[in-house]
Amino acid sequence: MSTLSPAAKAQWQIHFCVLLWGFTAILGKLISLAALPLVWWRMLIVVVALALVPRTWRGLRAIPPRLVLAYAGIGVLVALHWLTFYGSIKLANASVGATCIALATPMTALLEPWLARRRFSWRELALGVATLPGVALVVGGLPPAMLLGLAVGTLSAVLVALFGSLNKRLVEQGDAFAVTALELGAGTLTVTAIAPLLPWLFAPLASEVFILPDARDALLVLALALACTLLPFTLSLVALRHMSAFAAQLATNLEPVYAIVLAALLLGEQHELTPTFYLGAALILGVVFLHPLLEARGRVRHAQIVGPSEAKQLVD
Question: In angstroms, what CA-CA distances link 85 with 4, 25, 66, 82, 91?
Fold first, then answer.
């Protein structure tokens, strides 16, 4: 009985993560909390849950102080990403907020080689750019009132590219549970620290951070934290050990497709499901599935080139 290779397993893992992340925009829209307390509760619940797991503490003890600071810095970027992501949803809608994340693909193609110290790939950049027409078609025409949400969502995509590339560089140097706890713990402290400054920095996101959710919101936030954050965040770190940040981000382009379909079913955002939407979704899907095919073809070609060379060395 054949077993999946680590790379193939990583692909399945990241696609499962993307499916769960597809619900985050929906939950963000359903939860009545503002973006600031929503992000704060989301991260705090994950950190508390991980603190109850002995493996987390064993992993933390094994991480050198220098790496603790590095992971904490990445956590700051994660917190800022989630703030801008939910800010985009509140300023526009779930469909726009989720779709903007696909803009991170060409950004990751540019940033990952520099931050993760690997060779730049023109093919990856071309694939990243190829997703943009699909993103544009999925979003469709936006009313002027939603343009600020689009801008905030674009900033969120830049932050995704940054922390995804940095995580790829450091992911093999710490246990996934411990890394998740460090990053989201630092993120929780970041949100707490910047909350008083938001009225001056960016008024649309300003609000009280220490707001106790009602029973309905508490259940939704708990689902968001455990099922759509703790599980996929940790699993995505495991998958990154066997795939590039670009490949992971390319798969994440399916998140807006899931989110918009769910938004139509659960939130009544039926206006997004037009022929234009299906065309955009098809373009995104095509690029997502084209990437692993090109990667496999490249590995075969490399083996064909390296094989005769190694054989010649054996004969010599």
Answer: 34, 9, 29, 5, 10
